[in-house]
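@channel sequence for tomorrow's demo:
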Amino acid sequence: MKKLIIIIIATAFAVLPQFLNAQVKTGKSGGKTEKLDRSVRPQPAPAPVINIGKYESFELENGLKVFVVENHKIPRVSYSLILDYNPVPEGNMAGMADFAGQMLRTGTTNLTKDELDEAIDFIGADLSTSSTGIYASALKKHNGQLLTLMADVLMNPSFKEEELAKLKTQAISGLKAQENDPEAISDRISKQLVYGAAHPYGESMTEKSVENISVDHCRAFYQAFFRPNIGYMAIVGDITKAEAMELMQKYLGNWEKADVIQYTPETPALPASNTVAIVDRPDAVQTALRIGYPVDLKPGSEDAIKARVMNTILGGGTFRLFNNLREDKAYTYGAYSQLNTDKLTGRFNVNTEIRNSVTDSAINEVFYEMRRIREELVPEDELNLVKNFLNGNFALSLERPQTVANFAISTARYGLDADYYANYMKNLAAVSAEDVKAVAGKYIKPENAYILAVGKAAEIAPRLGQFTGGKAIKYYDFNGKEYDPNTRVKPAPEGMTAENVLKSYINAIGGEKALNKIKDMTMMASTTMQGMTIGFDFYRKSPNKYMMKVGAGEMVFQKMVFDGTTAKLISPMGGENKVLEGNELEDMKVEAEMNQELHYARLGVNLTLEGIEEIDGVECYRLILTYPSGKQSTQFFDAKSGLKVKELSEQGTATFGDYREVNGVRFPFAISQQMGPQTIDLKVLSIKVNSKLKDDLFSTN
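structure tokens (generated this afternoon):
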């Protein structure tokens, strides 16, 4: 049994005095004082004139554009390279660009990865790579060594097979974890809906696409796009332009330029009417909701600042959506919107997580707020509040020298006016309520949106039909493949029942007679988390005694004990010693039962056979188990072998494999448990049966 962990976030609010007894002197009027009339709202002050920090720029013969921002407060220099190319479709090799970028950091033709890591650590530097550039930083005295390493990484990557294999293993592990992460699922599918599966912005990495990527693909991508003539280098820190010019020429002057393909994808269109899509998570109690569509909003365009003000009012912080869905309706912990500019295609998106039972109500409230900002003028006090909020954020960003460099690069990349950022606050202050309404009418489309709900389809689908305009709801799996829910789970053969499936499973693992011979069982398993080996020890004794211990060496992290009557959860490190009650105790009674599958009827566990569903290419019977506490789990049994291969529950997704026989009974020796973004791969080390465990082992005293 796995404990459900509830995280409670407490927020403290500072309360300011409501009344101030401020008085002002009138100066030459003889010392007369007047009380401030607080019924009159003070007029906003004029937008401040800001002085953007200075930068200098130059260009190498190979086309590399360099921007230098001097900051001599700390003897440190950072180098940030951005490659300005349009992303290309990767198709059945989605993820290739990411792998190519990561591989730059895995070694060069001169240094292995270990040697490179050691050289970077030796000078206390940072050096990271991506598909769109490279970042490096170190103390000024190490400039030469840092740029030697940076240039080597940039121009001489080794692209070794063994390093790609490591990255692919990590990526596949991450993908498996994402399968049970509603936020990751909604991000994948929502961008596919908004941009289209063939658009570079709509593609997502899959296990199959990862397997298709080779070293040659990564090398070809690098050779095509890592070119200086599309590069923008920001140099920030204790350095002058003259020093920067000398260093760039010395270390990157021989970086060869070449023509770079600038692919222009087809611009995605708005849906003609609202489109509803669902990713089914049968045991989810919450729905991850995304509402969005593509927008034509370019960086630095005439509408950009006005649109940012408008979106901030709608949901760019703790404003309208947040106040409506959280503060007023208590549907969620937070609701937000984003309106992103992009040189190809921008995107509007609303995101929140709500209870299944209020999914439709939450959508209605989102659309209400979208229509309200289109149809009504924003009150002046609300508009000023948001403009002050954005002014403050902008002013704070100016404290970072890197911001000045970013402004310079953005001005060059997007062809902005030279004084675009210098006039930012002035232009922000000029945004009126009429401007907000106008851009809302242009970019807020409550009738042309993709509505994606990641949750329990059986519960939320009936609530979402009202938003389809008569069209069918679309269903997608984790990898973005559309399917028909009416055919995904095929009917079971005539005469096949849940009890038959369970009996096949019992026979597959050894049979009822062999199971009844087991009087006690000890299982030792382990996993590795953050480099530490964690041990899981399980003990069972007939009829219903149970103990689980989790720890490392002599250190015990958690212990669960049930003596047949009383259950306790003990966490020595957390100081917890909890007696389980209510539904937790009822679940424990089922979990502790030796060979519980033989006793479901007596335990009050109801079984429902939903049909046959394909799991990883294998046809499986899909069973719903409903426990006395009301909780449910979905279990999948291989239709041919009878073995259980997968289970979905509130705790996440568990998979079972590598069945081995111990004393005539087959046990899974490989168990993978996914809980949100985390995956725990349990490797069973040993299983012993009938070792005459003592009752004292299960004592709760």
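heads up for whoever presents: DSSP finds 21 helices and 28 strands in the chain.
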